[in-house]
Amino acid sequence: MNATRLAIPDVILFEPRIFGDERGFFFESFNQARFDEAVGRSVTFVQDNHSRSVRNVLRGLHYQIQQPQGKLVRVAVGEVFDVAVDLRRSSPTFGKWVGAILSAENKKQLWVPEGFGHGFVVLSDVAEFLYKTTDYYAPQHERCIIWNDPTLAIEWPIQGEPVLSAKDMKGTAFLQADVFA
Ligand SMILES: Cc1cn([C@H]2C[C@H](O)[C@@H](COP(=O)(O)OP(=O)(O)O[C@H]3O[C@@H](C)C(=O)[C@@H](O)[C@H]3O)O2)c(=O)[nH]c1=O
């Protein structure tokens, strides 16, 4: 497993070692000891999520202002562009974003720590998105920043308008959003 810190160093891209043979493939999709070593601390996950979306669906930018969730995300079907936005005011990279292509083919995983907004857009006909979270879903603490916020200026690799949930259409501007200390 290869672990690479991105331009926001707390965000880590994992590339698992794939064992292919005539039957298909095998890889460790999660290894607690290796994960903790790469992150540099002990991380506990409490929830696993799985969503399916069609092309151009954009989910995000989501976070929980209390009970913040670290997320280890991956794609089992299709391809997405996945984004993490640093929402920690005290961070040197506050308001910056990083993105990565995650796909069933490349099997990459992104570690999006607590204190980040998270979202993705689907680049294939369908995508199945799997992720582990470090805290439970708490809708009362859920916040959404609008995907196309001009201050964040995320370069989503799509043409035209994405497909959004009613909730995500009403996302807040970054400059008005609740953020972390
Ligand atoms: C996220 C979540 C949703 N739900 C329910 C609430 C709702 O009825 C339905 C769909 O929820 P949403 O529209 O919020 O799902 P979705 O837009 O996929 O939300 C997810 O987006 C990505 C980008 C993230 O980062 C996740 O943390 C999460 O916020 O599922 C749960 O029961 N548990 C959960 O953990």
TrEMBL record:
Q: Name any one Pfam family assigned in the record.
A: dTDP_sugar_isom
The keyword Acetylation is annotated on this UniProt entry: no
Question: What EC number(s) does the entry state?
Answer: 5.1.3.13
Q: Which family does it belong to?
A: Belongs to the dTDP-4-dehydrorhamnose 3,5-epimerase family.
> Could you identify this protein by its name?
dTDP-4-dehydrorhamnose 3,5-epimerase
Q: What class of enzyme is it?
A: isomerase
InterPro entries registered for this protein in UniProt: RmlC-like, RmlC-like_jellyroll, RmlC_Cupin_sf
Q: In which pathway does it act?
A: Carbohydrate biosynthesis; dTDP-L-rhamnose biosynthesis
